[in-house]
Amino acid sequence: MSDQCSCCSGCGAMPPELKRKFDELDRYIAELHPDDNPDRSRGFLIQILHRAQGLFGYLPEDVQKFVASRLKLSPAEVYGVISFYSYFTDKPVGRYKINVCTGTACFVKGASKVLDEFKRRLNIREGETTEDGKFFLGALRCVGACSLAPVVMVNDKVYGNMTAEKVADILKECAE
Amino acid sequence: MKIESPAQLKKTAEEFRSRPTPPVKLLVSMGTCGIAAGTASVLKAVREEVTRRRLENALEVVEVGCMGLCYAEPTLMMVDQTTGRRLIYGDVTPQQVPSILSAGITEPAPGTRTIERNWYYPEFESAGPGELQARIVLRNTGRLNPESIDEYIMNDGYAALAKVLTTMKGQDVIDVISASGLRGRGGGGFPTGRKWQFAAQQPAGEKFIICNADEGDPGAFMDRAVLEGDPHAVLEAMTIGGYAIGAQTGVIYIRAEYPLAVKRLENAIAQAREYGFLGRNIMGSGFDFNIEIKFGAGAFVCGEETALIHSIEGKRGEPTVKPPFPAVEGLWKRPSVVNNVETYACIAAIIRKGAEWFRTLGTEGSPGTKVFALAGKVSKVGLAEVPMGMTLRQIIYDIGDGIKFGKQFKAVQTGGPSGGCITAKNLDLPIDYESLKAIGSMMGSGGMIVMDEDDCMVNIAKFFLEFTLDESCGKCTPCRIGNRRMYEMLEEITDGRGTLETIEKLKTLSATIKDTALCGLGQTAPNPVLSTLKNFEDEYLAHVKESRCPAGSCSKLIRYVISDKCVGCGLCLHRCPVNCITGERKMRHQIDAAKCIKCGVCYQTCKFHAVEKI
Question: Could you tell me the pTM of the whole model?
Answer without folding.
Answer: 0.91
